[in-house]
Every structure is written in structure tokens, then in C-alpha cells.
Amino acid sequence: MHLIDETWIDAPPATVSAAVGDPANWQPWWPYLQVTVTRDRGLKGMQFAAAPAPGSGWPALAGTVEIWLEPFKSGVILHHFLRLEPAGGQRLPARAARRWSRQAGWHAKRVFWRLKDELEGGS
Fold first, then answer.
1. What is the pLDDT of residues 45-85, one digit of tens each?
2. Would you tell me which of 32, 47, 72, 122 could form a disulfide with 117, CB atoms 3.0–4.6 Å apart?
3. What whole-number distance in Å separates Cα of residue 80 and Cα of residue 39?
């Protein structure tokens, strides 16, 4: 599963970076993964190693997660990258892989639109 998504947030880079760097956000953002920071890029974002989250109801996926923060106009473009493969060398049938990829994409949209609303004062 390779997912690339972008969300523009009209908030200062430091504010968005603080939200990205808050470990309390990571489980709700990726409930199907256990993430470990591999690189804290400060105002530019974070990179994570990802392992399957037991009992999540999702297939066992592992790989990397990255959030890259790009200053743009009065805010930030939050770039979200998931690079995940079935853990343990297993394979997902093509239909299941498409379903889980769609579900991860919609979940990411909901998560980062909610963050956008919170940081822009909309909720």
C-alpha cells in the first residue's frame, strides 16, 4: 500500500509541527499501526517506522510513515506518505489490498481534515 495525500492547513508551521510531534495524536491517526520515530525533522515533519497494531482489525502491515510539512502562503501543506507491505512476507489478495488502501486513504482524509479544523479554529 502506497498512499500519498496532501492537506493545506492555514496555521503557522510551528503549530502544525507541534501537532505532528505530539505522540498522543499518533494512535488515532494510525490505529492500525504502531509507529516509532526514526527521524524528527522539526518544522519539516517526522518520519516513522511502522509495525502492525495487534487487534486493530486491519491486515498486519509494516513499513514507513512520513509527514512532510511544506510552508505555503500563510500556512503549511501537510504531505502524508504511507509505504506499507503485509508483514511477515504474507500477500494480500488484490481486491483486499485495494479495499484496505481505499479505507486508509479515507481515514487519512478524515484525520487531517479534523486537524485542519482544529488548528484553524473551526471546531
1. 999 999 999 888 888 999 999 999 999 999 999 999 999 99
2. 122
3. 15
Do residues 103 and 3 make contact, with C-beta atoms less than 8 angstroms apart?
no
* pLDDT at 91 > cutoff 90: no
C-alpha cell, 69: 510539512
- Side-chain-side CA neighbours of 67 within 13 Å: the count stands at 29
- The Cα-based distances of 75 to 15, 16, 108 in angstroms read 10, 9, 19
Helix (H) or strand (E) holding 97: helix 94-119
- Residue 122 predicted with pLDDT over 80: no
The architecture in CATH of the region 2-118 reads 2-Layer Sandwich (3.30)
Query: Residue ranges of the domains in the chain?
Result: 2-118
